Amino acid sequence: MLELLLRGLAVLAEVVLELVFGYLFYASGWLVLRLLTLGSYPRLPLRISDPMDPRSSWVSAFGFLCVAGLPLTVLVFLYG
């Protein structure tokens, strides 16, 4: 019984984290790409139903690089 409850909580946590990080990375990647290309790309809207869709996964990957990579790079240059 406890094992079943823990599995359910793990699946719920996985879904919540996937949604939060997927939308966070997509939104940040979308914003940075719009700023860099002066509004030309991506032509996808900001609000989409699935940020991990094959058409929009590259925007999420770019958002991940911006959210995770940029602060780490700054820390390395400052304290490395």
Question: Would you mind describing this structure in some detail?
Answer:
With 80 residues, this protein is mainly alpha-helical. It is built from two helices and no strands. Helix 1 packs across helix 2. It is flat and about 55 Å long. The protein starts with a helix and ends with a helix. The model has no long low-confidence stretch (mean pLDDT 86).
SSE topology sketch:
Layout: H1 2-36, H2 57-79
Concise summary:
The protein is mainly alpha-helical and 80 residues long. The protein is 72% helix and 0% strand. It starts with a helix and ends with a helix.
Compute the average pLDDT.
86
Structural class: mainly alpha
What does the radius of gyration come to? 16 Å
Number of strands: 0
* Share of β-strand residues: under 5%
Low-confidence stretches at least 5 residues in length (pLDDT < 50)? none
Largest sheet: none
Number of helices: 2
- The helix-strand sequence is HH
Q: Percent helix among the residues?
A: over 70%
Q: For the terminal residues, how far apart are their CA atoms?
A: 49 Å
Q: Which shape, going by the Cα principal axes?
A: flat
